[in-house]
Amino acid sequence: QVQLVESGGGLVQPGGSLRLSCAAPGFTLDYYAIGWFRQAPGKEREGISCISFRDGSTHYTDFVKGRFTISRDSANNTVYLQMNNLKPEDTAVYYCAIAQVYDVKFCYDAMDYWGKGTLVTVSS
């Protein structure tokens, strides 16, 4: 069973930044795409970004382009989501998930394993 562990959430003021981490203890991510998703209260879960752990190729959904950056650390088997210029509407539980896809732009509907999420609250 694959375990994904998100961390880095918390309370931040509008305009602030957070970096989320997604780790997979004891499991190699080399052949997977890793995606970040979020679910705000009362809303459906939505995809944010995906990265190929093998080659680092990335995809972003339009609403986070320019503000969020996904990256990977092969040495630590970890994927990050750097979130800048946060807005109150970014408040949500953020999840990471993994999928085996050839092209990361198709990752959002192909996730096999999910983490339990980390809460991000943007408020003054």
Main features:
single chain, about 120 residues, mainly beta, 7-stranded mixed β-sheet, 4-stranded antiparallel β-sheet
Provide a descriptive summary of the structure in words.
This protein is an all-beta fold and 124 residues long. It is 0% helix and 45% strand. The protein has no helices and 11 strands. Strands 2, 4, 5, 6, 9, 10 and 11 form a 7-stranded mixed beta sheet that branches. It has a 4-stranded antiparallel beta sheet with strand order 1-3-8-7, with no helix packed on it. Strand 7 and strand 8 form a beta hairpin. It is globular and about 40 Å long. The N and C termini lie far apart (39 Å).
**How many helical elements?**
0
Task: Please trace the helix and strand order, writing H or E for each element.
Answer: EEEEEEEEEEE
The coarse silhouette is globular
Percentage of residues in strands: over 45%
Largest sheet: 7 strands, mixed
Low-confidence stretches: none
Structural classification? mainly beta
- Mean pLDDT across the residues is 95
Radius of gyration: 13 Å
What is the straight-line distance between the termini? 39 Å
In percent, how helical is the residue content?
Answer: under 10%
Q: Number of DSSP strands?
A: 11
